[in-house]
Protein backbone atom coordinates (compact mmCIF):
# COMPACT_ATOMS: atom_id res chain seq x y z
CA UNK A 1 0.00 0.00 0.00
CA UNK A 2 1.13 3.56 -0.68
CA UNK A 3 1.82 5.45 2.54
CA UNK A 4 0.97 9.15 2.55
CA UNK A 5 3.03 10.94 5.19
CA UNK A 6 1.65 14.33 6.16
CA UNK A 7 3.58 16.99 8.01
CA UNK A 8 3.31 18.66 10.35
CA UNK A 9 0.79 16.78 12.48
CA UNK A 10 -0.54 20.05 13.86
CA UNK A 11 0.04 23.76 13.52
CA UNK A 12 -0.76 26.69 15.80
CA UNK A 13 -1.70 29.56 13.60
CA UNK A 14 -3.16 33.07 13.65
CA UNK A 15 -5.78 34.57 11.39
CA UNK A 16 -4.05 36.07 8.38
CA UNK A 17 -1.13 33.63 8.47
CA UNK A 18 0.15 31.81 5.43
CA UNK A 19 -0.13 28.09 6.17
CA UNK A 20 1.79 25.39 4.33
CA UNK A 21 1.56 21.66 4.87
CA UNK A 22 3.11 18.75 3.08
CA UNK A 23 2.26 15.26 1.97
CA UNK A 24 4.87 12.75 0.86
CA UNK A 25 3.92 9.55 -0.96
CA UNK A 26 5.94 6.37 -0.44
CA UNK A 27 6.01 5.91 -4.22
CA UNK A 28 5.22 7.89 -7.34
CA UNK A 29 1.52 8.77 -7.52
CA UNK A 30 1.73 11.18 -10.44
CA UNK A 31 -0.69 14.05 -9.84
CA UNK A 32 -3.36 11.79 -8.36
CA UNK A 33 -3.60 13.55 -5.02
CA UNK A 34 -6.55 15.35 -3.49
CA UNK A 35 -6.85 17.52 -0.41
CA UNK A 36 -9.85 17.40 1.93
CA UNK A 37 -10.90 19.60 4.82
CA UNK A 38 -12.70 18.08 7.77
CA UNK A 39 -14.23 20.21 10.50
CA UNK A 40 -15.20 18.70 13.83
CA UNK A 41 -18.30 16.55 13.55
CA UNK A 42 -18.54 16.93 9.79
CA UNK A 43 -17.70 14.83 6.77
CA UNK A 44 -14.63 15.73 4.70
CA UNK A 45 -14.98 18.32 1.95
CA UNK A 46 -12.99 18.37 -1.25
CA UNK A 47 -10.78 21.42 -1.72
CA UNK A 48 -8.13 20.44 -4.27
CA UNK A 49 -8.15 17.59 -6.76
CA UNK A 50 -5.48 16.26 -9.10
CA UNK A 51 -2.80 17.97 -7.00
CA UNK A 52 -3.50 21.55 -8.03
CA UNK A 53 -7.08 21.98 -9.23
CA UNK A 54 -9.36 23.97 -7.00
CA UNK A 55 -12.81 22.41 -6.65
CA UNK A 56 -15.89 24.43 -7.56
CA UNK A 57 -16.60 27.19 -5.07
CA UNK A 58 -13.38 26.79 -3.10
CA UNK A 59 -11.82 30.17 -2.25
CA UNK A 60 -8.62 30.99 -4.09
CA UNK A 61 -6.66 31.27 -0.84
CA UNK A 62 -6.45 27.46 -1.01
CA UNK A 63 -3.83 26.11 -3.41
CA UNK A 64 -2.14 22.80 -4.04
CA UNK A 65 1.00 21.84 -5.90
CA UNK A 66 3.35 18.95 -6.51
CA UNK A 67 3.66 15.72 -8.43
CA UNK A 68 5.37 12.39 -8.09
CA UNK A 69 5.96 11.92 -4.39
CA UNK A 70 5.90 15.43 -2.90
CA UNK A 71 2.82 17.58 -2.53
CA UNK A 72 2.11 20.90 -0.83
CA UNK A 73 -1.11 22.51 0.31
CA UNK A 74 -1.22 26.21 1.16
CA UNK A 75 -3.73 28.56 2.71
CA UNK A 76 -2.52 32.02 1.77
CA UNK A 77 -4.51 34.09 4.27
CA UNK A 78 -5.80 31.92 7.09
CA UNK A 79 -9.37 32.60 8.16
CA UNK A 80 -11.04 31.47 11.38
CA UNK A 81 -13.40 29.24 9.40
CA UNK A 82 -10.39 27.33 8.04
CA UNK A 83 -9.72 25.72 11.41
CA UNK A 84 -9.99 22.03 10.62
CA UNK A 85 -8.01 18.90 9.90
CA UNK A 86 -6.66 18.63 6.37
CA UNK A 87 -6.05 15.31 4.68
CA UNK A 88 -4.26 14.35 1.50
CA UNK A 89 -5.36 11.27 -0.40
CA UNK A 90 -3.85 9.36 -3.31
CA UNK A 91 -6.06 7.73 -5.92
CA UNK A 92 -3.23 6.57 -8.15
CA UNK A 93 -3.51 2.94 -7.14
CA UNK A 94 -5.57 0.65 -4.95
CA UNK A 95 -6.07 0.77 -2.09
CA UNK A 96 -6.63 4.51 -2.02
CA UNK A 97 -4.84 5.88 1.03
CA UNK A 98 -5.05 9.01 3.13
CA UNK A 99 -2.48 10.89 5.11
CA UNK A 100 -2.94 11.06 8.89
CA UNK A 101 -3.99 14.68 8.69
CA UNK A 102 -2.71 18.10 9.69
CA UNK A 103 -4.72 19.83 12.38
CA UNK A 104 -4.86 23.61 12.40
CA UNK A 105 -5.37 25.24 15.78
CA UNK A 106 -5.48 28.86 16.89
CA UNK A 107 -2.38 30.19 18.56
CA UNK B 1 -29.09 19.04 -5.40
CA UNK B 2 -26.98 16.00 -4.66
CA UNK B 3 -27.60 14.49 -1.23
CA UNK B 4 -26.36 11.36 0.46
CA UNK B 5 -28.45 10.39 3.49
CA UNK B 6 -26.98 7.79 5.77
CA UNK B 7 -28.73 5.59 8.30
CA UNK B 8 -28.55 6.30 12.02
CA UNK B 9 -26.05 5.28 14.64
CA UNK B 10 -25.81 1.59 15.53
CA UNK B 11 -24.87 -0.08 18.80
CA UNK B 12 -24.09 -3.71 18.09
CA UNK B 13 -22.63 -6.67 19.93
CA UNK B 14 -19.25 -8.24 19.20
CA UNK B 15 -19.52 -11.06 16.71
CA UNK B 16 -22.68 -9.72 15.12
CA UNK B 17 -23.25 -7.99 11.78
CA UNK B 18 -24.64 -4.61 10.83
CA UNK B 19 -25.92 -3.17 7.57
CA UNK B 20 -25.78 0.57 7.04
CA UNK B 21 -27.30 2.51 4.20
CA UNK B 22 -26.62 5.53 2.03
CA UNK B 23 -29.61 6.90 0.11
CA UNK B 24 -28.70 9.05 -2.87
CA UNK B 25 -30.82 11.80 -4.39
CA UNK B 26 -30.41 14.62 -6.85
CA UNK B 27 -28.50 12.65 -9.48
CA UNK B 28 -28.59 9.42 -11.49
CA UNK B 29 -27.62 6.87 -8.85
CA UNK B 30 -26.61 4.19 -11.34
CA UNK B 31 -24.07 6.36 -13.14
CA UNK B 32 -21.47 6.93 -10.43
CA UNK B 33 -19.35 4.76 -8.18
CA UNK B 34 -20.18 4.94 -4.50
CA UNK B 35 -17.24 4.57 -2.15
CA UNK B 36 -17.13 3.83 1.55
CA UNK B 37 -14.59 5.25 3.98
CA UNK B 38 -13.93 4.40 7.63
CA UNK B 39 -12.87 6.82 10.36
CA UNK B 40 -12.06 5.52 13.81
CA UNK B 41 -12.47 7.94 16.74
CA UNK B 42 -9.72 10.52 16.67
CA UNK B 43 -8.10 8.81 13.73
CA UNK B 44 -7.68 9.38 10.06
CA UNK B 45 -9.51 8.03 7.08
CA UNK B 46 -9.37 4.54 5.59
CA UNK B 47 -10.73 3.58 2.20
CA UNK B 48 -12.93 0.47 2.22
CA UNK B 49 -14.04 0.05 -1.39
CA UNK B 50 -16.55 1.00 -4.03
CA UNK B 51 -19.62 -0.26 -5.81
CA UNK B 52 -20.90 0.76 -9.22
CA UNK B 53 -24.69 0.66 -8.79
CA UNK B 54 -25.24 0.42 -12.53
CA UNK B 55 -24.07 -3.18 -12.64
CA UNK B 56 -23.14 -4.07 -9.07
CA UNK B 57 -19.41 -4.27 -9.73
CA UNK B 58 -17.32 -3.85 -6.61
CA UNK B 59 -13.73 -3.29 -5.59
CA UNK B 60 -12.46 -3.72 -2.04
CA UNK B 61 -9.44 -2.75 -0.05
CA UNK B 62 -7.94 -6.21 0.65
CA UNK B 63 -7.92 -5.31 4.34
CA UNK B 64 -11.74 -5.32 4.28
CA UNK B 65 -12.21 -8.52 2.28
CA UNK B 66 -14.54 -10.67 4.32
CA UNK B 67 -15.36 -7.76 6.62
CA UNK B 68 -17.34 -5.44 4.35
CA UNK B 69 -19.87 -6.33 1.67
CA UNK B 70 -21.14 -3.59 -0.63
CA UNK B 71 -24.49 -3.79 -2.36
CA UNK B 72 -26.84 -1.36 -4.07
CA UNK B 73 -30.58 -1.20 -4.71
CA UNK B 74 -31.31 0.66 -7.92
CA UNK B 75 -35.03 0.89 -7.21
CA UNK B 76 -34.47 2.96 -4.08
CA UNK B 77 -31.14 4.60 -5.07
CA UNK B 78 -29.58 3.23 -1.92
CA UNK B 79 -26.13 1.80 -1.36
CA UNK B 80 -25.49 -0.55 1.53
CA UNK B 81 -22.48 -1.77 3.42
CA UNK B 82 -22.70 -4.84 5.63
CA UNK B 83 -19.99 -5.34 8.22
CA UNK B 84 -19.64 -8.81 9.67
CA UNK B 85 -17.97 -10.52 12.65
CA UNK B 86 -17.77 -7.19 14.41
CA UNK B 87 -15.06 -6.41 16.94
CA UNK B 88 -14.11 -3.26 18.81
CA UNK B 89 -11.80 -2.41 15.89
CA UNK B 90 -14.89 -1.89 13.76
CA UNK B 91 -16.18 0.88 16.03
CA UNK B 92 -15.96 3.89 13.76
CA UNK B 93 -17.83 6.40 11.65
CA UNK B 94 -18.49 5.14 8.16
CA UNK B 95 -18.96 7.54 5.27
CA UNK B 96 -20.31 6.99 1.80
CA UNK B 97 -19.01 9.29 -0.91
CA UNK B 98 -19.80 9.74 -4.58
CA UNK B 99 -16.91 9.37 -7.00
CA UNK B 100 -17.33 12.02 -9.66
CA UNK B 101 -15.55 12.22 -13.01
CA UNK B 102 -13.85 15.26 -14.44
CA UNK B 103 -13.74 14.44 -18.17
CA UNK B 104 -10.88 16.75 -19.00
CA UNK B 105 -7.83 15.98 -21.13
CA UNK B 106 -6.85 13.34 -18.59
CA UNK B 107 -10.06 12.09 -16.96
CA UNK B 108 -9.94 12.17 -13.20
CA UNK B 109 -12.29 11.13 -10.43
CA UNK B 110 -12.72 12.58 -6.95
CA UNK B 111 -15.09 12.45 -3.98
CA UNK B 112 -17.36 15.43 -4.53
CA UNK B 113 -20.20 14.61 -2.13
CA UNK B 114 -20.00 12.77 1.17
CA UNK B 115 -22.72 11.48 3.43
CA UNK B 116 -22.81 12.73 7.04
CA UNK B 117 -21.49 9.42 8.33
CA UNK B 118 -22.92 6.56 10.36
CA UNK B 119 -21.40 5.79 13.74
CA UNK B 120 -21.10 2.11 14.54
CA UNK B 121 -20.25 1.20 18.13
CA UNK B 122 -19.36 -2.40 18.91
CA UNK B 123 -19.87 -3.16 22.56
CA UNK B 124 -21.29 -5.91 24.71
What does this structure look like?
The complex is a heterodimer of chains A (107) and B (124). The radius of gyration of chain A is 13 Å and the shape is globular. The mean pLDDT of chain A is 97. In chain A, strand 4 and strand 5 (45-49) form a beta hairpin. With 107 residues, chain A is mainly β. In chain A, the strands form 2 sheets. In chain A, strands 2, 4, 5, 6, 9, 10 and 11 form a 7-stranded mixed sheet that branches. Chain A starts with a strand and ends with a strand. Chain A has strands at 4-7, 10-13, 19-25, 33-38, 45-49, 53-54, 62-67, 70-75, 85-90, 97-98, 102-106. The radius of gyration of chain B is 14 Å and the shape is globular. With 124 residues, chain B is mainly beta. In chain B, a hairpin with a 5-residue loop joins strand 9 and strand 10. In chain B, strands 2, 4, 5, 6, 9, 10 and 11 form a 7-stranded mixed sheet that branches. A 4-stranded antiparallel sheet of chain B has the order 1-3-8-7, with no helix packed on it. The chains are: A mainly beta (107), B mainly beta (124).
Amino acid sequence: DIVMTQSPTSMSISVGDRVTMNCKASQNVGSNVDWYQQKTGQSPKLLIYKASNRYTGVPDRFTGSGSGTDFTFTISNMQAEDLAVYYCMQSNSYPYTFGAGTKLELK
Amino acid sequence: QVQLQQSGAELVKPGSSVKISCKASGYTFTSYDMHWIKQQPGNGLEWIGWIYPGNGNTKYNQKFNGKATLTADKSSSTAYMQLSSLTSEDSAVYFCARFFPDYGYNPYWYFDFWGPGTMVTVSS
